[in-house]
Amino acid sequence: MLTLAELLKILPDARYQGAADPAATTVDAVTADSRLVQPGSLFVAVSGGRVDGHRFLLAACAAGASALLGSTPLATLLASGMIPPDVPYVQTADSRIALALSCAALHDFPSRKLPVIGVTGTDGKTTTCMLLESILATATADVAYPAGRVGVVTTVGAHIYGQAIDTGLHVTTPDAPAVQRFLAEMVAAGCQYAVIESTSHGLAQARVAAVDFDIAAVTNITHEHLDFHGTRDAYVAAKARLFRSLYATPPKPGVARCAVLNADDTGSYGALLAVLSQEALLHNCQVPVRSYGIPTHGATRLDVVATDVAYTTDRTRFSVAWWGGVFPVETPLIGEFNVYNILCAITAALTLGIAPGIVQEGIAKMPGVLGRMQRMDRGQPFLAVVDFAHTPISLENALRTLRLLVGLNAPDGAGRLIAVFGSAGLRDRAKRALMGRVSGRLADFSVITAEDPRTEDLDEICRAIERGVCEFAGPGAYAIVTDRAEAIQTAVHMAQPGDVVVAFGKGHERSMCFGETEYPWSDQDVMLAALDCRIP
Fold first, then answer.
1. Where a domain ends, among 294, 312, 347?
2. Segment 396-420 mean pLDDT
């Protein structure tokens, strides 16, 4: 609990308007959802989304809100009847930032009490966060805490001491109240580290605005979310907010600070270095920059390097050269993209002072992430996989990796790569044909299907993908099956020994959106059901 007066001190450009004494007005909870308002809540009216939160000020008052916060002048709200007279009202320029700061203040700024690592990027964020969890859990495990003292918030869910906490059916970064609540729970539980996956939506919408980051890491930045951000520059700028937050975070005693960049990702490396230079001038301080990569890919200055990379069908081995020496790594994760994810996690962990031996152990025992190259087995003579790849680059990386597994169960080593995928409605339309081109070029057979069509015409989405497929594949190399369960069943039924069947795009998600409704969905359940009823 805190008073409105205490809250006003930490909100930038806050203007209080009301007859009540802010020092006597208490706040027991903070929310931007009027349905969650209880007596004593601060209701924050957020604008800029599909619905203007200022429309729900009256409802929040009726539910017992002790104070209101928004970005619209009080006089305008009173004139339009959107707010009752004499209700404590705080106006700020950016109510999203005010929401994050208010939630952090309510929980006594939990991110100031432990090291926090933020991970952003287009692909590989969740895997990198889970790798960090495994490394840091290994570093902090003891008899009392066998699962380690680490908390993680990702798009898959939240973990505290290895215990899973659901964050919703279909989310990116959780909203600011949830993020601060998770951080407070981590502090209360005695966690020694926190890892926060930070999506571009989460950064742009200030969901992590009040998190004090000590390490900011990026996996890569490719073609994605231009429907939301508008341009690639705006997308990169949203990702760069994580690094701006890093500079805005006051140093914590005994905690290392660092920006971790992928030097081989030429599309983002230079832009993020420029942001870091600007922030260094603005804050009159320097934050160390560590870069990682694979030397054969052209980068000249690397702090953490993967050499002697060797891939097999079920694991990857390589050597890591860093500023303190060289050590080997072995992981059940496969594919070059996972080498980059591992390098990103290693760079952050070594910066925190984690010993190489602990890093090795943590990586070796991290089996995988839900919906990321997840193998589905019912004893069938072919490989079935569920993967989250939903961008042109991630789809290409996944298909190239899976190509290594084709023919494993066939006596003659022959086999086909069968890809089931779609593209989301009300999202970047340009990537639909790009996804089709990738699959048409790299898969032997493409099954085009639904992936959250939302309010768009599913047939039209599929035809856009089809145009891309047809640039590289003939009519006999693809099919359109709009029902996703039927599409997966079709791929499973056509599979022969040595084939690889993979469903892309949903991964860990537990719902699929048709119209404006989220329906329960699991690619894993559907894939297993298809395998169970496969025609012999």
1. 294
2. 90
CA distance 132 to 323: 19
Q: Answer for the pair 107, 213: CB distance below 8 angstroms, yes or no.
A: no
> Does residue 229 register a pLDDT over 60?
no
The span from the CA of 112 to the CA of 58, in Å, is 35
Tokens 């916060």 identify what position?
69
| Site of tokens 């906490």 | 165
**Residue labelled with tokens 């006089």:** 75
Amino acid found at 523:
D
Q: Which tokens go with 235?
A: 């997308």
257 and 113: one domain?
yes
Question: CA nearest 406: which of 384, 377, 388?
Answer: 384
Q: Count how many domains the chain has.
A: 3
CATH number for position 76: 3.40.1390.10
Beta strands, E only, 323-382: 325-331, 374-376
Bridge partners for 67 per DSSP: 42
User: pLDDT category, 223, cuts 50, 70, 90?
Assistant: low
On whether both 496 and 412 belong to a single domain, the answer is yes
**Mean pLDDT value across residues 394-405:** 92
Burial of 353 (0-12, 13-18, 19+ CB in 10 A): exposed
Determine the structural domain holding residue 53 and report its residue range.
2-105
Residues 6+ positions from 79 with CB-CB distance below 8 Å: none
Confidence of residue 299 (pLDDT cuts 50, 70, 90): low
Name the strands in the sheet holding 41-44, side by side, starting at the edge strand that comes first in the sequence: 15-17, 89-91, 67-70, 41-44, 29-31
- The answer on 458 and 416 residing in a single domain is yes
Cα separation, 35 vs 112, in Å, equals 30
DSSP codes of every residue in 87-123: --EEE-S-HHHHHHHHHHHHTT-GGGGS-EEEEE-SS
pLDDT at 172 over 80: no
Are the C-beta atoms of residues 433 and 473 closer than 8 Å to each other?
no
CA atoms within 13 A of residue 143's CA, in its CB half-sphere? 0
Based on the fold, state whether residues 144 and 99 are members of the same structural domain: no
Residues 117 and 169 in one domain: yes
Q: d(Cα 533, Cα 323) in Å, to the nearest integer? A: 54
Name beta bridge partners: 172. none
Distance of alpha carbon 281 from alpha carbon 295, whole angstroms:
31
Q: Are 320 and 346 spatial neighbours (Cβ–Cβ below 8 Å)?
A: yes
* 417 lies in the same domain as 508: yes
- Tokens standing for 226? 């231009």
In the three-class reduction of DSSP (H, G, I as helix; E, B as strand; rest coil), residue 194 is classed as: strand
